[in-house]
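Bit of a strange request maybe. I'm writing a small parser for C-alpha cell strings and I need a real example to test against, not something I typed by hand. Could someone generate the C-alpha cells for this chain?
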Amino acid sequence: MDILIRYGFTIEEIKIMMDTNSSIEDMNEENVKSIINILENINCSKGEIKNILICNPFCITNSVIDINNLINKLNNIGINKLNILVSTNPYILNISDKELDKLYNIKVKEGLNKEEIIDYINYNIIY
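Reply from user aminoacidic:
Good idea to test on real output. This should exercise your parser:
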C-alpha cells in the first residue's frame, strides 16, 4: 500500500486498517487513489481523509463507481457539506445509492419533509 504511505499514513495505521479489512492488501493502488480523489473532490482535507479511511477501512475496497453514485445521490438529495457528512459518519460510504433511496423513501412515508430527511442523514450514523 505504497499509496497510503505516500499519502502520509504510518505503517501502524495501515496495519490497523488491514487488521480490520484484510482485503486492503489485495487492492489496486489506482482504486485507492480514485477513492482518495473522490474524497478530495468533496473538499475533505488530508487529515479528514486519513481519519475516514482509518475509521472505515472498508470504503477502500468499495467500488469507485458505487461511491461516485452515492456521492451523486447525496448531492441530488440536497446535502451540500459532504465533507462534513463523510467525516462525521465515514460508514455512510458503505451504503449504495439504492439503499439511500430506500432510506429516503422510508423517511418520506414516516412523514418527514426533505429538510428533515437531510437533517436525519446529516446527524445520524448510517451504515
